[in-house]
Amino acid sequence: MDPESFLDIANQVIKLKMFPYFDIAHSLLCALSVKEDLGAGAHAFSRKHPLACWLSTMLVIFAGGMVAAALLGEPVLGPLKNTPQLLVATACWYVVFYTPFDIGYKVSKFLPVKLVASAMKEVYRAKKVHDGVVHAAKLYPNAYIIMIVIGTIKGNGAGFTKLLERLIRGAWTPTAMEFMQPSFYTKASVVASIIFVLDKKTDWISAPHALVYFGIVIFLVYFKLSSLLLGIHDPFVPFENLMCAFLFGGIWDSLAKLFGKGQVKEEASKDAKKAN
To answer: CB under 8 Å to 127, separation ≥6 — which residues?
Structure first.
């Protein structure tokens, strides 16, 4: 492709308006995740506890903005001030949980529909990460770690509120901590935030900003579709294993075990000789 044409496409992507279509995709997939997390009891729970069901779904949908606002000392409920966006989120929740014969849920789960919605959600995620980094940079111009944290939270806030979201539904799962088992979306949001910070605050990246943004979008969309179609759920795992082996004691623990076994064998042979 002609570089100028590619740059034009990148400029168009960065100017995309998220409302309403990308918000619909995001809200629909968030409602799906809540229903799937409820499992077999989703139908009964939604009928018996509609308020708790709605609150937990809204928390998942607006988690990034609410958690980021809390960390930055802004009104936590600020993300809910956009009434049209809140209505779209509520409509998606209703479609997933309450349409007759569960047709809304079945259509949303239909693979072609889910592929399109997932791709749109990743474009939405890239936008949220970028906006989080930019917003944090305005408040704390030299605090790179704050920019990365806010970008990550904006990109996958639902992962960090899972404990509270389940608690609203009456389920206490203290092990569901994103810090203990970060998902691919959190890791991808961290990487995207770092790249946006480097692009905004340093001269390390010489490419136009639109191309950097477009590259992040392609990265997120590609791996999301790969997880749905090819079962590739976390491409970071091999790098994490390598890093843990070299930087976080993996090699030294293995050597310690190896030498420890050798010492045990030597002591066992000495004891056997003494017994003879």
So the answer is: 16, 18, 22
